[in-house]
Predict the structure of Universal stress protein family protein.
Amino acid sequence: MTLKSIGVFVDATPEGEKRIDYAATLAHQCGAHLVGIDVVSAVRREHRSDYYVVGEKAIRASLASRKAADEAATSNVRRRFEAISANRDLSSEFRVIRRGGPGEDLTLSSLHSDLVVIGQRELQELPGYAAPERLLLASGAPILVIPSGWKSEPIGNNILVGWNASREARRAVVDALPFLVAAKCVKLLVVDSDERAGRHGEEPGADIALYLARHGAHVEVEQVSSQGAPVADIILSCARDHGVDLIVIGAYSHARSVEMVFGGVTRKLLKQAPVPVLISR
């Protein structure tokens, strides 16, 4: 798959500007259209004093103040996004999603993207953002989560793929192909292969490694036993030991009616991974 449309969630934080810069660089490399998605007030928490506003006049003043702050923040973010996009001569657009039920707009903005770039902190702390499982379930677009401590280093030179022979893992590998083919090294990590021996085949990891090699990726397979340790900890430890700058995982999940709840491995990686994580389902 070639990346031709990339969505990036933007905001007025320093992390937000780094995300714009990375997404713009990636779009330039791929010749992709870049969509900046700004959730109004997503970086602004409610102030304690907002809960004590009494009287029609005071309420109107509070709402007007909030609207002015939102518009100023949006204007600032738009200028940054447009300047960075223009500097790289990109085809781009800027979308604003208003407060008060942005779920459908978020999904629509993600639905037609080959990749959605979002910040780790936004997924966990800031109001106004859809949970990653909702975006994945509703849009099907792979999500690249950038950690809060990321220092604008390159992404995707040394990639770790968590492989468990599941449909979700296979989907993640396909969605990550543009990164995997371009990487200097791809490490395919197989944890506790004996638990799904029938899915892995005679040599766990060998078939998917051959699949990737045929696409031009440079792949190494590593099989490990967790010995009872959490699988997420094994993945994070391997990433640290090998200087990994991108983790690729399938979002294993448990369906609940129209919602989806991530498994423990996926959720822990999203919260704690010190490097970018590409998740797909």
Q: What stands out?
A: The chain has two domains: 5-146, 158-280. Residues 254-262 have pLDDT under 50 and may be disordered.
